[in-house]
Amino acid sequence: MPNFIALTSAGIELLLAEELVELGATDVAPKVQSVHFFCSFETAQKICLWTRLATRILRHVVQVSGSSKEKIYDGVLGFDWHPFFTKTKVFAVEFVGTDKSIRNSQFGGQIVKDAIVDNIREETGKRPDVDKQSPDLIIQARLFKGQCNVYVDFSGPSLHQRGYRKAQGAAPLKEHLAAGIIRRSGWDGKSSFVDLFCGSGTLLIEAAMINKNRAPGLTRRQFSFVKHPEFLVHKYEAIRDEAIAQEKPISADIIGFEIVGYVLDIARENIAMAGLEGDIKLAQQDAVKATVGKDVTPGWIVSNPPYGERIGDSITLLTLFKKLGFNLKSNYVNWNMSLLCTENTLLKLLKLQKDKEYKFKNGAIDILLVKYQLTEQQCEMGNVTSNGYFLSKDGQAFSGRIDKNLKRLSKWIKKENISCYRIYDADIPEYNVAVDYYDGRIVVYEYQAPKTVNANLAEQRLLDVLSILQEKFDLTSDKFSLKVRKSQKGKEQYQKEAERQQRFIVEENGAKLYVNIHDYLDTGLFLDHRSVRQRFASMCSGKSILNLFCYTGSVSVHAALNGAKRVTSVDMSNTYLEWAEDNFFINKLDKKNHFFHRADCLAWLTNTRDKFDLVFLDPPSFSNSKKMDRTWDVQRDHVEILKLMKDRLMDGGQILFSNNLRGFKLDVEGITELGYKIEDITKDTLPPDFERNAKIHHCWILSVA
Fold first, then answer.
1. Which domains does the chain have, with CATH numbers?
2. Can you list the residues of the chain whose pLDDT is less than 70?
């Protein structure tokens, strides 16, 4: 009996093995993305017609023990290739795998091709032609663990191409994967089948063909096995006629919903191409509202809902999944359901207990199929808001606190004309996040949870936070960013979070400032320093200003706008200095009397001979950047830098010194010995949106005594 191999996608191997046994194969052995089996030539033809799960069938012809160039050449040369070339004018060779001997698949393919050409030339005196684009016959060599097995293509172009897909949506499932998902869902092939996110209709079409017992290969024009020497037309026609005779009328409700009109039109076209008009019911409906009607008996929901690779990119989906859970519990009691996702975080918003999950691959994307049984117990409503959201008591408390904070801040925001402010900062212990508002955009900082907090519970609470905010502010991914506040080590302090380059301009006390909520851990504007900037700006008229560790230059802009005669900004980051210069540009500030220096701030302060009336010093808590000759620790080094700075102050000069190290302790004795007079202005610089967090920053004015 001939030896065959069926190729498929990751996750389908066991299902394909079961299918092959049902179709008459023996000695079935699942491997990675393939299944090996034995069967007769006629059974292999039947498999090509009937398989829903294989992408390709290959016939084994040569096994070479060893992987050297010489052994592969001799092994392939020794096979009788002539019978395969009686109906073949041109051929192509594919080579899969490498090892120490064959390090390049192109080189391996050349060896196999040369051996076949030499074999046919010795047999017939003629050299067969090679055509990689349109070959009559494809030969594939697969090298693995020191053995090279050579196969002749049996099925032809990928079997997932059923011929009905005229067009497709944005995230198509290949037909064999759709069939594998349906099989893994447990659908019995007879009960109602519903796809709430039908897209271009692939799942619906595959389900309808299963119910009708239609062989998916019937629409193919030709299989490669017609070029094989054993092929007999009358035997194949008998197999094909038998497959046609086994088809039966549709006997199940196959129903699809799709919210996008033009995508639904694509589904209709594909269904028509498949000859299934009248067998599948379609409706333009939002999945969160779609119902099948009381006349449809409970069956299976199998869907591929939209998903994002990261929760931050999926912000617009949060409401969808919460409301979908409400719809499922309201209208699909006693149904079975299987949903695809990249990871199951979003599915937690359904508030359903999963039954099982299975891993697949959709192209290069790892996906999960998660199964549910929508029993009456599963579908109990629990805490539901008026908008169809399921919220715990803690979630309702968080939602209420957001509303309370917005109401409390509203008069102040309107009076001060503030467009960027903090809405929430870990007000409720269970929701350990900070929420900042930037002129219509939202940034959520998730504080790293201690190890004592259950990871699943923390994730669920974060989902509550994000879905509540999405509902309240109608967020899209470009207007939302999620960041994790944790201890930064080494290079982590300076690495980008993303690469969107979506800066926008906000206004603060007459200044225009660029903000970027996506690309870095910080946005370019520290909101807790709003009052600090205002206090400092009021001191700047007619003075020479130094902004050390200037970051994006917001303080420098305020100083220049408030009449400073000279502003010098120093930072060791090119990115931040360019950002600072851009901030000057959008405020139409002439840089003629304002200077920007990229340097290690301590080294620059040591080397400069310039003097200043007023200094803004807001250093990082810690830095070990390679751009510095040493590390920086604000607790350890603040007296040292203030000593250096004293020599750079004019008579009567002042320093506004601030930092955000929560446990920071000012060395009062050491600073007093330097000759500074100390004024603690921390309480005066805490704006209303940060009042409950008294340790958000520390701030002093240091004057030369």
1. 3-153 (3.30.2130.30), 175-213+250-373 (3.40.50.150), 393-486 (3.30.750.80), 524-704 (3.40.50.150)
2. 1-2, 167-171, 308-313, 382-390, 485-500
